[in-house]
Design brief:
single chain, mainly alpha, elongated, disordered C terminus
Length: 91
């Protein structure tokens, strides 16, 4: 059995299926037994699903790029001269 801290650290690998089947089963066993971790996995899975649904939406990407650049400037960090774009030139 594993603990909640370990599940929390490995949740993204778990959700992205980036772990061995054996490790995944250990995490699954903990999630089935732990209400808190079950709730965390459900929340993070829903979040990840929503991000995947909107990640290629031009308005989302453009808005995110602008907010990141503004946040960087507020922290005294110059944003890069070129940030990824959603124009036809992008792959």
């Amino acid at each position: 059995m594993t603990d909640c801290t370990t599940v929390g650290r490995q949740i993204w690998d778990y959700l992205d299926h980036e772990m061995t089947a054996e490790r995944r089963e250990v995490i699954n066993a903990h999630i089935r037994a732990c209400r808190d971790c079950f709730s965390l996995v459900r929340f993070d899975a829903a979040f990840l699903q929503r991000v995947r649904a909107v990640k290629d939406t031009p308005l989302f990407v453009d808005d995110l790029r602008q907010r990141l650049a503004a946040a960087m400037r507020e922290q005294g960090v110059a944003p890069p001269d070129t940030l990824p774009t959603t124009t036809a030139e992008s792959p």
